[in-house]
Amino acid sequence: MTHPNPNRRQALSLAAGGAALLAAPSLFAQDKFPSRPITLIAPWPAGGSSDAIMRAFGQSASKILGVPVVIENKPGVGGTLGASAMMQAKPDGYTITQLPLGIYRLPHMQNMPFNPVTDITHIVCLTGYTFGIACTADAPFKNLKEMVAYAKANPGKLEYGHTGTGTTPHLAIEEFSEKAGIKLNPIPFKGSAEIMQAILGGHIRVMSGTTEFAPHVQSGKLRLLATLGSQRNKAFPDVPTVKESGWDTITESPFGIGGPKNMDPAVVKVLHDAFKATLDDPEVKAALDKFFQPTIYMNTADYTAYAQRTFAAEKATIERLGLAKKS
Asked: Model-level pTM greater than 0.90?
């Protein structure tokens, strides 16, 4: 009778133990997430209001998660480059992106490398933009009705800056212009920071954008003609909405954080809980207050349902404006 080699028995035991670990990789990975830095894509240029908000969220989430959350700027294509770049990433939670409203719109206007409903995991909605129409302080109009009269007297000559073709600030003004019966000359920029440089430098007279304009309105360098939400902005209670001014145009734009499709639900929950907790961080609250952005929280299920509704609604809007891509 032969006796097993004790070294062989030990090797077999170690192999069995290793096989057991390999048999449960998701549990092992779940316990370790996050164990290294997370990349959060901000699909806008550095230095703008969106960039500042995303950096505030990233810094706060870093403290909560215990690993760095690194902001990576990928501006262009109406804020959709974040989602496009994320399509190349593993669904492991280490590459996530801001999800601006444009990701639900541009696929109806041009070919995009993603479907915002089927290719993205909607993790959590956090806040939303306040949009407005502002002009230089020396503009020959003091309110929206006067701007419309000026535009009718000078068709196609009044330029306005926006954050890119197909973005919310662009389409909001196009819809308003259609209802007002005027023709404006749209000038696209990569983000709010570039728009502010252009309008403060006198290169354009009107802008449609986020509350990057706020400090310049308060200092008297710019004049806020109207806001685009359903209600007046609490920071500018004397400024009417576009709808109050006589044109039925309402534009509101929630946004949050998303990742690639097929993410582990346990990883999604970790990220959801961390970013939800950032909304209680005084530094995040201060950043949101600075740019007059409200808290708009939606959990993963609600945010996913919102994405489905919005994708369908944006299709109808694009078709109504005659901007749908050709089949």
From this structure: no
